[in-house]
Every structure is written in C-alpha cells, then in structure tokens.
Amino acid sequence: MKKESKENIKHSSLSDETPTGAGTIAVKVDDLTVAYNYKPVLWDIDLEIPEGVLMAIVGPNGAGKSTLIKSILGILKPIAGSVTIYGKSYEKQRKLVAYVPQKGSVDWDFPTTALDVVMMGTYGSLGWIKRPGQKEKKAALEALEKVGMLAFQGRQISQLSGGQQQRIFLARALVQNASIYFMDEPFQGVDATTEIAIINILKELRKAGKTVIVVHHDLQTVPEYFDWVTFLNVKKIATGPVKDIFNDDNLTKTYGINYKVSIQE
Amino acid sequence: MIFLLSQKVLDITKYIELVFTDYTLRTITLGTAILGAITGMLGSFAVLRKQSLLGDAISHAALPGIAIAFLITGAKDTNTLLVGALVSGLIGTFWIKSIVTKTHLKSDTALGLILSVFFGFGMLLLTFIQKQPNANQAGLDKYLFGQAATLVESDVWMMAIVTGLCLIVMLTFWKEFKILLFDADYTKTLGFNTRTIDVLITVFIVIAIVLGLQTVGVVLMSAMLLAPAAAARQWTNSLATMVFLAAIFGAFSGVFGTAISASQNNLSTGPVIVLVASVFVGFSFIFSPSRGLLFKQIRVIKNRRDLELHKTLAFMYHIAETHENISHPHTIKILNNFQGYTKNTLSKLVDKGYVELNGKMWSLTQDGFKTASNLYNQQNEINE
User: Fold this and answer.
1) Between chains, do B190 and A123 touch, taking CB under 8 Å as contact?
2) Is B278's pLDDT higher than 50?
3) pTM for the whole thing?
4) Which of A52, A174, B72, B217 could be stapled to B145 by a disulfide with Cβ–Cβ 3.0 to 4.6 Å?
5) Considering only CA atoms, which of A182, A166, A150 is closest in space to residue A74?
6) Boundaries of CATH 1.10.10 in chain B?
7) By residue range, what is the domain housing residue A168?
8) Phi, psi torsion values for B364, nearest 5 degrees
9) Residue A244 included in any domain
10) Over the range A138-174, which residues count as b (16 or more CB within 10 Å of their CB) and which as e?
C-alpha cells in the first residue's frame, strides 16, 4: 500500500503539464502592505496566481507567508492594497475559497469529535442559524473517507495524532467544495505516510482544475510537489513556474545566504 | 449509630420539606440553583475560550457601577444597582478588549489592570458613601461577598427570565458559538461576523455575573463561572454535554450550598456555594474515568506491570524456542540476568497459567508459548 502511493507520486509528475500562467487569474494581489504595529510584515506585494496551479509559498521564518494568506482571506486587515478572487472581492467570492489553517492555531483539547470538526466546513454554505443536516453529514463523511479518516469519525480530536489532525483539517476544507484552496503549512509535524496522502489529494485537486496555494517549508520537495512557486521575504522576490524560477539565485535572494539546493533527478 | 443516622435522615427530609414550604428558603434555593445553572452554562464558553479570568475582571469592574447608581438615585433598590453594575461591567469588558487589540499589552495584563483599577475605584466610592450622612447608605458592602438572604421572589423571576433568554440565544446560535470557540480565524473566512458572535457571548457572560453579584458577590463571582465548567470538562468530550453538565453542577452547587449554609448557623451562603462547587471540581479532577488523576495513575501502573510481565515472558520464549520441547524445564537462575524478572512477576506468570514451576526449575506451558509468540510477532510488526 505504502509503496504503491510512493510510485503514484512519481507517475503523476507534473513537469509535462505545467500551466503557462496565461489562463485566467484566480487570485490577484495589488500593492498589498501589512504591518503589525510599526513593523511591516508584507511590503508592496503584487501577485497574480493563475487558475489551476499547485503553488508553494516559500520563504524564511517571519517572511510573511501566513500573513499573506490571512490577508487574502480577510482575516487580517492590510494597511494598503487590494485582493481580488476571480476579479471580485473576497466577501463576494468566499464560497469559492477554502482555508486550512496551521494545525497549531487551535486547541485540540476542545470537546468535539473528528466528524464534528469536518462538518464545520459546511457552516459557510449553511449561513447563520441553520443547522447541518443529513446532507451535510454525508458530505463530511465523504471528505473523511477521502483523507482516509473515516474510521476515526467519532474520535475525540485530542486523541488523534498530529498527522491525523492535519487530515481532519484538510477534510474540513474539502467539504467546502471550493475552487481555490489556501493551506498554511499542511506538512508541518506530520509523518511520511500522511505527507504522501496529503500531497496526493492536493494533486488530485489540481487535476480537477482547482487552484491550490500552500505555505511550504521543505525546499527539497518543492520541485517534486509543486508546479508553481512564490518566493517571499517581506517583499515578493519571484513568482512563476517551478521549472523556470526555482533556482539558487532566487533561493539566495530569499533566504539571504548562499543557498544551494540539490534538485534530485 | 443507627439512631444518629435516622436522625440525620429525618433532618434531611425535614429540610427538604422546608424548602418547599418556607418562603425565604424556597426563594434562596431556587435563586442560587438558577444562578448556578446559568453561570455554569456560560462559564463553559469562557473556559473554552481561555478567558477564565475575564469573569473575575468583569465582576470586579461592576463594583463602581453599583456605587455610582446609588449616588445618583440615592435608593438601594436592587434592580437599579444591578443596572449600574451591568453598565460598568460592560465598560470594563470592552476596555479590556480594546486594550488587547490596540496596545502591545497581553490580555492577562489588561485583565489585571481593569480588575484592580475598577475595584479600587469602587472601594473608594463605597468608603465615600459610608461617610455620607444618609441613613440609607448601610449595606452596600454586601455586594462584596453577596448575601443570598436578600433574594426576593422578583429577583428569582429576573434570573429565570434571563436564563431562559440566554438558553434561547444559545440554542439559536449554537453552531456559530461552537465554531467560534474552536477556530475563530476559520470562522471569519466562512463569512461569519465573528465580532457579533463574540459580543453576544460576552454580553451574556456580563449579565450572568451581574445577576450573581447580589448572591455571591464581586469577589467570589468568577468561581461560579469557572468551577462548574472545569468540573464538567472532566466528564465529557462533547461540547453540548459539557455545557449541560456545567449547568447541572452549578445548580447543585447552589442547592447544596444553600442547604449547608441554612442548616449550619447561617454560614455565609456565597462562600459555601463556591466551596461546594470546588468540591465538584476536586472530585472530577480525581475520579473522572478518562481524564481524572486516579484512573490515569491506575492505567500507568497497570501498563507498567503488563510490560514487565511481557518482557519476562518474551525472554523465556527466546530460551524455550531453542529447544524442541517448548516445555523443557530451565533453572530459575537464568532469569537473574534479566532485569524484568522479579519473584513477583514469576508468580504472576504462574497464576496466568503461562509458566509452570518445579522446584528451582521453570518451564513454559503451551498457552504461555502461544501468548509469547503472539507478543513477539506484534513487536516485530511495530518495528517494521
């Protein structure tokens, strides 16, 4: 089982079908500047994310990667700049967008079950007051099955491993059935099996024409996992297809040290 | 002995009879029960939001409101004073929130600051009022520690109505409350106005606290909010059950607290209720099956013993494996090299029928061999 999925990754190598970026723009960021108190965290970011890419946002700690996602999603208020999703504001398009926050951002000792957390993904389309019913439950169970967590549906969330918790978060976003997925470090603190399971799901999403944007830390896996990359360190350093711009020059500019990444054949 | 016991039972039945017949006792019992229920319910939200201390700050912040309401109206009417408490409690709460969002200060600092500034100002006003030549001024200080005996029927009605309202709002916005408590940022991305939900929860917490000031008082009020919720969390992994249990624990704290204070020379009711609530907490911390200290410790000890036993059995299995006849006897001395071995574990293995002893020799039984080989295979699977 394990070996099979490893092979899957190699087979579904993305290099032959890399998007050109000439198509529709899914997310457009203009002159975005965000500051906590006086210190700018993001400085004058212009960014166009084409539809259908699987994009990594890379950069050192404190580069503003999470902040960028949170500003696009309207969680943080920028001091300048604007964001559009398919040409309209986030408020108007939020049903097209799903979000997977960092696993560490919530208290996993909260008294609730795995299924319950995944059901939360349906709350947005339900709107105020209306309760989730059978339809929502069915969608949540399907999402749990997709991430291989169906057997854990009734489990209290604190009794799940880090990898399982991450899968639950992914399932919650899948339930939203969005066009654009934002994920904040989905591979942080998960084991190899979960990492493979997650990346396979992300690639499936991409194949289905969805746009997936991932804050990513492991530079070694960027060429293997992603077809699009944005280098970020307070300012935007570069953005484009991995095969064109994922090189030592941009890595050095982003990380400030002479960075050599050995890209495996 | 039996006489004493029956005497006690008689006392209790007599007390219960009194609760239903005596107006004052009935009012106080009902009042403290309802108060315990609503504070327990709302306290669950405060505890899960990690805002346990917010209740403390709110109740202290209410004190100047009571004093100012008295200064303005010159009357000691409970409802007027509580409206004053409500206003200054709300002001305090929203100051705390804006300090946290607008300055570098952390929420614990903001809470501490507002709590002490408002309480200090309130105490100042109280001493000022006491020096006034107004015959009406005495007794305002009862709001410091509360005085359940002053509860009248209209107060209880007020509590019941607010509790009912709170229940309706909670059931209506249950889904929104739950998701906000668990993951506020995510809630925002789904298009919910998190501020509205937040304000709704906070306003209800403030109202519940203000309602309790007359009974439990400024100083101890936060315990009513936290203790039932903390106790309830130990028994369940479902939010709905937790809120329900917290309400039950709170209500029983009220009833038992009133009973104890009424039957023991009129001990001050507020503190007794708080102590009863903390008994619930202590009991839950120790005896909860899944999260309690006792069962946790028992599980640790049991696991350790099982492991020791398994280690010894696995060691024996390795020795027995080398012989054609698995029940070939070996000397006990071999086991001395082995750390998992004690006389105790050996006799336990005999009890379980895994091992037979014959003088200074031991041998594995068929059953023991089978169990050990299962263990051994499991071990290998884990390593793979």
Assistant:
1) yes
2) yes
3) 0.84
4) B217
5) A182
6) 295-383
7) 55-62+95-227+234-255
8) -75, 140
9) yes
10) ebbbebbebbebeebbebbbeebeebbbbbbbbbbbb
pLDDT digits (tens, 9 = 90+) for A229-240: 999 999 999 999
Give residue-wise pLDDT tens across range A239-258: 999 999 998 889 988 988 76
| Confidence at B355, pLDDT banded by 50, 70, 90 | confident
Comparing B106 with A184, which gets the higher pLDDT?
A: A184
B242: nearest CA partner in chain A: A111
Which residues of chain B does A124 touch, with a Cβ-Cβ cutoff of 8 Å?
189-192
Pick from A143-157, B146-160, B224-238, B364-378: least confident? B364-378
pLDDT band at residue A264 using 50, 70 and 90 as cut-offs: very low
User: Nearest C-alpha of chain A: how many angstroms from B173?
Assistant: 6
Closest CA to A78 of A28, A40, A27: A40
Contacts of residue A94, Cβ cutoff 8 Å, sequence gap at least 6: A74, A85, A124, B189, B190, B191
In a domain, A38, yes or no: no
Q: Is B299 on the interface with A (CB under 8 A)?
A: no
Residue A86 located in a structural domain: no
As for how many domains chain A has, the answer is 1
Is the Cβ pair B104, A106 closer than 8 Å? no
List the one residue out of B300, B247, A59 whose CA is nearest residue A69: A59
Q: Does B182 touch chain A (CB under 8 A)?
A: yes
| A22 secondary structure, DSSP code | -
Q: For chain B, what is the mean pLDDT?
A: 86
A-B C-beta contacts closer than 8 Å? 79
> Which CATH class, in words, describes the domain spanning B295-383?
mainly alpha
Query: Spelled out in words, what is the top-level CATH class assigned to the domain B2-291?
Result: mainly alpha
CB atoms within 10 A of CB B322: 8
Residue in the structure block whose two tokens are 């607008």: B102
ipTM for the complex?
0.88
Residue A111 has pLDDT above 80, yes or no: yes
Tracing tokens 């396979």 back to the chain, one arrives at A200
Please report, for the domain that includes residue A202, its CATH number. Answer: 3.40.50.300
Residue A120 located in a structural domain:
yes
